[in-house]
Each structure stands twice: as structure tokens, then as C-alpha cells.
Amino acid sequence: MSTGQEHTVKAFDQDIGQLRALISQMGGLAEQAIEDAMLALSRGDAELANEVRKKDKQIDAIEAELEKLVVRVIALRAPMADDLREVIAALKIAAVIERIGDYAKNIAKRVPLIHAEGEERIDVVSILPSMGQLAADMVHDVLDAYSARDPEAAIRVCKRDNALDDFYDSIFRTLVTYMVENSRTISQVAHLLFVAKNLERVGDHATNVAEMVYFAATGEYMAERETGEAGAN
Amino acid sequence: MSTGQEHTVKAFDQDIGQLRALISQMGGLAEQAIEDAMLALSRGDAELANEVRKKDKQIDAIEAELEKLVVRVIALRAPMADDLREVIAALKIAAVIERIGDYAKNIAKRVPLIHAEGEERIDVVSILPSMGQLAADMVHDVLDAYSARDPEAAIRVCKRDNALDDFYDSIFRTLVTYMVENSRTISQVAHLLFVAKNLERVGDHATNVAEMVYFAATGEYMAERETGEAGAN
Q: Where is the PhoU domain (chains A, B) (predicted)?
């Protein structure tokens, strides 16, 4: 970022600071949303699940605010080269965080379907909460990497995506086996399958942000071997 | 859009035309990808599925090209107000189309898992191809709405999303019932569940684009009742 003394440069730095603050705020809400959705899921807490759904509107509202700010910054400051790329990156990262929030909301929506009244209580996947924590941690860490503009931290986030994919593969197999053996709860377990898939997608999106952070910090694309590729399960 | 005679205005119109052409190209590829992935699925054609996966890189490459063009247009032309919003909208629409391409790729990835060698041939969901066609049609129609800047056509796309959600709900129930009765094929059918979910998500994204088209054409947000809300299944 430029450090010039001109009025417009200082104003631009303030704008960028504001964009970054909005992204941190969105990211904090998204991380919390994943944790709360997973808590609601393990407790069968429909009220908490409902709160996660409501709070998603806050994330959407911040994204809309950020978008307006981006348009204003570009129109007023006419940023060039690196500065412009940083503004565009903020727009893209915000869109990804909004999607992460949607995945948390989707998990929350499934809580009442999984713990439906009169239905058998199911508690088949002991490692699902650990998977949820890893996904939330990746979101947390990639936002730290973004704040610190730290390409090494971004690489570390990407590497953890493989662990998340392994979690998913293992949970997929466990759930399918469970369905084979417990046909009464197949519908509930199918929803759990989507929960695991949503968490796996959260990891993919954290990885996407990490790649953008890396690119913004180094001007180069992250090597393919660092990024990992999502499985098809 | 402005129709002034100045050199820079004409150049800007050309840029916008180029952005729109790139979006049409991406959209055409995404629509084709959905159709091909669904064809590969019904035929059990692993080769065609593989081609869909390869072609997704083209969509990604066009998005990257569009992004560079956006940065160049903003830097060179310093567009204001409506023009700037149109440029930002192109960036956002391209990102959504890229995601639609990813869903088609994800369907293609599941073809060999659903039609695994030595596994039972399953053919449980006769309405899945119709759902695929509806999703592809929505992508086609929303791109037409974008080209024509037609807010009424955008509303029609959103209304069809409800039909897609109904397809999904029906397929979800059919597949769960099938799993209950055929435990040997649960893993394959679980993949079909994800295929249906991917198509449902394609519809959501077509709806997102339709909302952007509507906003760009009218300056107003589409009324909530027109947009439909995705189910949680």
C-alpha cells in the first residue's frame, strides 16, 4: 500500500482500513455462525439454530455495505494498479465469506429436520463436531492471514484443507454404513451427510480466500500442490 | 448506458460490450456443462463426464480474463455511477457463473461413483433429467435476460426456481425411500442426492443473477415474493 503524504492517499488508506474492518467483522460473524450451528446440531437446540439463520442477515448486510463502499472508493479515489487490485480483492473475499455464512445457515436449517420431534434421537458421528471446529478454525486463521498479509499463514490454511477432506470422506463412509444398518433414520442421516458436505465446502472457501491473500501478498499464484483439490464425495 | 460521442465514452461502450460477450461465453459453457454432465450421468458415460471436468477450466480462464478486463476498464476509463455499477455487476455475475460451472463439474465427478464397475446399475430417478434440463434452461434464460436487460424476463427466471425446489423435494423423498428399500446401493444413491442438490443450487445461482439483472435494469431490488427462498433439504 502507498504511504504518500497527499490528502487523497491518506483518504485511500482510511478507505482500505474500513474495507478490511468490514471483512474482519463479516469473518468473525461467519466463524461464530459455524460454531453456533454445530452447537445447535449437537444439542438439538432449535432456538440457537434459528438465531444462526437470523444472524445471517447481518453478514449479508455487511457485504452490501462493503460493496457500496467499494463503488464509492473507486469513484472518488480512482485507485490504480495494486491499490485497485486490493479493492477488488476485498470485494471478492467478502463474497466468499457471505457464502461461508450461507453454509452455516444451511446447517442450522437442518437442525430441526435431524432432530425432528417423535423421530429417533441419532448421534452417529462423533467426529462431526471436530470437523466443524476445524472448518471454523480455518475461517478464523485465513482472516488472521488476511489482516497480517501473511502468505505463509495462507499456505498453512490450505494445507489444513486436506485434513478437512479426510474428515469428510471418513464421515461419508460412516454415515452410509449407518444408513445401511438403520433404515428408519435414513432421512435424518441424509441431512447429516449434507452438514458434513457444507463443512467441507466451508474449507474450500477458506482455501479460496487463502489463495487470494497469498496472491495479494506475493503477486504470484500459490503453487498447485499447496492448494489441494476437493474430493467428489 | 451513455451514448455520448467522445472517444472515451465510445471506448467504454466497447469495453462493456466485451465484458458482456465474455459473460455470454461463460454462460453458454456453463449451460452446456450442466446438460453434458446430466447426459453423462444418464448414460453412465465416464468419458463425457471427464470432458465436462476438463472444460470447466475454460470457464475459470474466462472469469480470470474478465477480472483483468474489469481492472483495466476501471483504471483506464474511471467509470462513474451507473457505468461503474455495470462493471461491478459483470464481475459479480461472472463469479456466479463460475460457481454454476463448478456444480456441473461436481455432478460429472460423481458419474463414475454412481456407475461404479461391478456395482448394481441404478436408475431410480426418472425425473432427475427433467430437473437438470430445467436448471440448464434457467441458466440459459437468465443470460438472455442479462443480454436484453429485461427485468420481466429476470422475474420469470426467479419464478421457475420454485419448480426446481419442488423437483428437489420430490427427488429427495424418492431417493430416501429407495435407500430404505435397497440398502446395497445406498452409497450410489447418496451421490444422486448430491446431484439433485447441485441442480437445486444451480437454480439458486440463476436466481441470484436474475436479481442482479433486475437491479441493474430498474435500479430497484426485486420484491421478496418474486425471489423464492431455497428449501433446506
A: 23-111, 129-213
| Domains of chain A and CATH, by start | 7-227 (1.20.58.220)
CA atoms within 13 A on the CB side of A170: 13
Provide, as residue numbers in chain B, all residues whose Cβ is less than 8 Å from the Cβ of A71.
Answer: 84-85, 88
Measured CA to CA, the distance from residue B87 to residue B67 in angstroms comes to 10
Distances (CA, A) of B227 to A197, A215, B146, B230: 25, 36, 16, 10
Chain A residues touching chain B at CB-CB below 8 Å: 67, 70-71, 74-75, 78, 80-81, 84-85, 88, 91-92, 95, 106, 109-110, 113, 172, 175-176, 179-180, 183, 186-187, 190-191, 193-194, 197, 232-233
CB A125 within 8 A of CB A165: no
Quote the CA–CA distance of A227 and B194 in Å, as a whole number. 24
Which pLDDT does position A37 carry in this prediction? 97
- What's the Rg (C-alpha) of chain B? 20
Report chain B (233 residues): mean pLDDT per 10 consecutive residues.
58 92 96 97 94 96 94 88 88 94 97 81 80 97 95 96 95 93 90 96 96 88 62 46
Cα–Cα nearest to B153, from B196, B92, B86, B216:
B216
Q: CA of A105: which chain B residue's CA is closest?
A: B232
**Three-class SS of residue B115?**
coil
Alpha-carbon span A67 to B53, nearest angstrom: 32
B86-113 b/e (C-beta count within 10 Å ≥ 16 → b): bbbbbbbbbbbbbbbbbbbbbbbbbbbb
Q: For B14-34, what is each residue's pLDDT tens digit?
A: 999 999 999 999 999 999 999
Other Cβ atoms closer than 10 A to B225: 8
CA dist B137 and A28 (Å) reads 38
Residue B221 Ramachandran class (φ > 0 left, ψ -120 to 50 alpha, else beta)? beta
What is the complex's ipTM, to 2 decimals?
0.83
